[in-house]
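To: structure subgroup
Subject: Chain for Friday's discussion

All,

I'm putting the inputs and outputs inline so they're searchable in the archive.
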Amino acid sequence: MKTHTHFDLEGRYLGHTITQDQHQPEPIAQDGVMVDTGAVISNCYLENGVIKLQTPNTSVLSGKTISGIDLPARALIDGRFQQITDSIVTLSFDFPGTYRVEIQPVKQIPVIFMVTQP
């Protein structure tokens, strides 16, 4: 049995595959990197060929501003990814409601904020 861990081109953990049969073809990495890790691991990232554990998230929400974002990162807002290019982001929404905002830095554990637009 082999375990392969998948990372995107930024080093972000994407998931893993396990091949049960030694004669089964190994999975192919698409748009990223695949590493034979021998075990299932998550909360990790790939940097210069070395798998490292993610650290606690430093992002802080104040009103509709999120600061302390470790870059590179992306945000998942209502099911859509948006690349984050600055360590401080001020959110605005077109419609009233409460929005789920997940900040996903490559080197830190993701964090979820609920942001309300009156």
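Points worth raising on Friday:
The two ends are 53 Å apart (CA to CA).
Residues 60-117 form one domain.

D.
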